[in-house]
Design brief:
It holds the Pfam family GST_N. The chain is α+β, with helices and mostly antiparallel strands. The protein folds into two domains: 79 residues, Glutaredoxin (3-Layer(aba) Sandwich), CATH 3.40.30; 111 residues, Glutathione S-transferase Yfyf (Class Pi), Chain A, domain 2. 53% of the residues lie in helices and 8% in strands. It has a four-stranded mixed β-sheet with strand order 2-1-3-4, with helices on one face. Helix 1 links the parallel strand 1 and strand 2.
Length: 214
Amino acid sequence: MGIQLYGFWRSNAAFRVRVALALKQLPFEEIEVDLLAGHQFDADYAEVNAERVVPTLVYNGHRVFQSLAIMEYLDEIHPSPRLMPDSAEDRAYARAMALVSVADAHPLVVPRVRKHLAETFGADANAIEAWCRHWAEEGLATYERMLVKRPAAPFALGASLSVADICIAGQKIIADLHRLDIEAFPNVAALMKRCFELPAFAQAHPFEQAGYPR
């Protein structure tokens, strides 16, 4: 059986996995779970993913969710090209960079958080957009500080792409969705430019997906 990926055009986490699959040249079938319509809460999808989030990768009967876990899983079963560095120190640094987006910046702007802000605190569309822009900028600013201390040459950990670059590129997705100017973060902008010049990144962008409302 081939690889199946439950995802959604707008999902930042699904973007990360699409990039990883493309870099490893692994074909896959993407199955849409419309997050904006709430289909992640449908009973049949709850059987696929107990957390009711995307993405979920299905391969050889195994289901893996959480984008960083999926990328590390792919690295173990299809190790070329490697997305995790060789040394323990660099692997820890790559994970730390990845988690700035995966665990800190991105989770604060996902649909369930935006819905909770509206339903529990009465936040209107403008307040929710301001919230999202704030946390998106916080993520970009953190990456900028990290790249000043350890400049990308040409990628976050040197000559080879890693999960760090994929997750930093994901912050561009958030910036694009919320119309943020990434030029205020020059080191991040330069790295993102190098990444999105590669087809694996450019073709995985949400705006290039079939479900994107044209």
